[in-house]
Amino acid sequence: MLSVLRTINKRPLFQASRAISTSRFLLQQKPPKDSKPQSILTDDMLERAGMDTDKPTSKNAKTEAGAEGERPKSKRIRKTSTDLRREKYANWMYIFSFSALAGSALYLTRDWEEGEPEEMTSKVENGYAPSLMYQRFKLRWNSMFTYFQEPPFPDLLPDSPPAPYKRPLTLVLSLEDLLVHSEWSQKHGWRTAKRPGVDYFLGYLSQYYEIVLFSSNYMMYSERVVEKLDPLHAFISYNLYKEHCVYRDGAHIKDLSKLNRDVNKVVIIDTDPSNYQLQPENAIPMKPWDGTPDDKLIQLIPFLEYIATQQPNDVKPVLNSFHDKYELPQEFQVRVQKLKEKFEKEQAQKAGGNWALKLLGVAPGASAGGASKFPLDMIREEGEKNYVRFMQMIEEEKAKMKIQQEQMSGQTFTLKDYVEGNIPTPEEQMQKQLEKQKEVDQLFEQQKNDQTAAK
């Protein structure tokens, strides 16, 4: 516009107006179709800022000069110093990872060392032959995964007690749908029902068996139920949970060989065959209990009592002699009835042949002190007497514990006692505990005498 104004000043008026109209025509003129908008940022400025551009290299420039209309085959990627540093670190990481994997694999092929499981060392010898190295690598590699499939301890139970306190057989019992049944409802939530006869079943068989409760659930879910079943730990010797199972093919299995007991003297009662699939010959299967009252547990007692009193070296032949283990109590009862009939016939024949005793007026079997009684009946009578005595001891212990809790409820130590050092020594605490135990025994005897006098 300044040039136009200067031209106006130097030219006549008609020429000036003509120039203005011409310049206005040029401003209103549309740009050609082929023209593209130009940016004020040049390629050099973008490259200095560290940005990628489409500017071809010198080689590409020659290509464009030689063949017009052809685009360059490749573009130069401009990388910043940060990108270069990242690529460098990534390359070093790849090299380090590959070296670590190769070194670990080579370390797994080393010779056997002391303390490694004998199950592996006995399979492959030492040596650096390729085949031996591969076999050692394979065994060690597989053991890394089997570690998470095995129980936390190689022996789930401690060693058996000495002979006077040792039970002849071990009885493994499931918890869910055998001794208890849990249900959930929208009204009451989770509720657990105890099967009829559980207390008598556990109390009676505890005189013959080392009872191990093996739950199919985790400890955090089953521990409270177990405590309700046996709060004094008088019947159940040990408790095991799902954490102690062996994991195989997607299933948790109760492996009896991990109990630190002779498998030939272990009997397991369970409602799920997959739980004892490693030792099916040791199992007495039962159908899951749905919560309705029944006496299936009580029906098992005669057979379990019989097999425990006979003390066989191997329980598997005895269990496998039954055609249908689900009907084991009924089949055992039929066998007992046949034996009883045979025994009575033999006793009748012996009584008929003893004519000399009849002449003397002596009743048959009297000289033997009632030996004509059926042996299994005698065993059951003795077992009932022991059960009654045992339950009396349990009731006495419950009464003593109740008195002891009442006596010990007031003994507390405050923070002031800890700060001033008024806490008795362990020896003094033990002495006070013994004195309290004597007081509890005296109070219990006094209550017992008062109850006897009241009767």
UniProtKB/TrEMBL annotation:
Positions of the FCP1 homology domain: 164-307
GO CC terms in record: TIM23 mitochondrial import inner membrane translocase complex
UniProt main location, coarse: mitochondrion
Keyword Transit peptide appears in the UniProt entry: yes
Organism: Maudiozyma humilis
Name by which UniProt lists this protein: Mitochondrial import inner membrane translocase subunit TIM50
Residue ranges, annotated region (Disordered): 28-80, 419-455
Keywords: Membrane, Mitochondrion, Mitochondrion inner membrane, Protein transport, Transit peptide, Translocation, Transmembrane, Transmembrane helix, Transport
Record's bilayer topology term: Single-pass membrane protein
Biased composition (Basic and acidic residues): 45-57, 429-441
Similarity field: Belongs to the TIM50 family.
The UniProt record lists the keyword Flavoprotein: no
Subunit structure: Component of the TIM23 complex.
Role summary: Essential component of the TIM23 complex, a complex that mediates the translocation of transit peptide-containing proteins across the mitochondrial inner membrane.
Superkingdom per UniProt: Eukaryota
Subcellular location: Mitochondrion inner membrane
GO biological process, one term: protein transport
Compositional bias annotation for Polar residues: 444-455
